[in-house]
Amino acid sequence: MPLSEHEQRMLEQIENALYAEDPKFASNVRRRRFGGSAARRRLQAAVVFVIGLALLIGGVVVDVTVGGFPILSLIGFLVMFGAGLLALWGVGSAPAASAGESSGGDGQSRRGRNRSSRSFSERMEERFNRRFDQE
């Protein structure tokens, strides 16, 4: 059941007050809320990958060739590659975008400047360390 306009305005006021009071907590809660879509995207990527693998193997078994090249296997490989890209690009985009929208305060702009001044390898190393510490 959808919310009325009055209820939506009240909810927005509560959210804005929460962001103003504790932006770190608010961004953390928002990231977790979008976690379901990342899991769903990973599952979709896994299913598409399996379909690509079946095409790859099926292309070898059926031996459909165009100009002496197994075209069905090539299509299977491209589907698998696309699934890998979907898994890699899809996971990081939704939570990062929601975190950028949610805080919008002074801390976020400072963090963005710091991120751009660091090198790619430093950011990758920091990500690796965070993941290693979580486990």
Automatic annotation (TrEMBL):
Transmembrane segments: 43-62, 68-89
Region (Disordered): 95-135
Keywords: Membrane, Transmembrane, Transmembrane helix
Source superkingdom: Bacteria
Pfam families tied to this protein: DUF3040
InterPro entries: DUF3040
Stretches with biased composition (Basic and acidic residues): 120-135
The name this protein goes by in its record: DUF3040 family protein
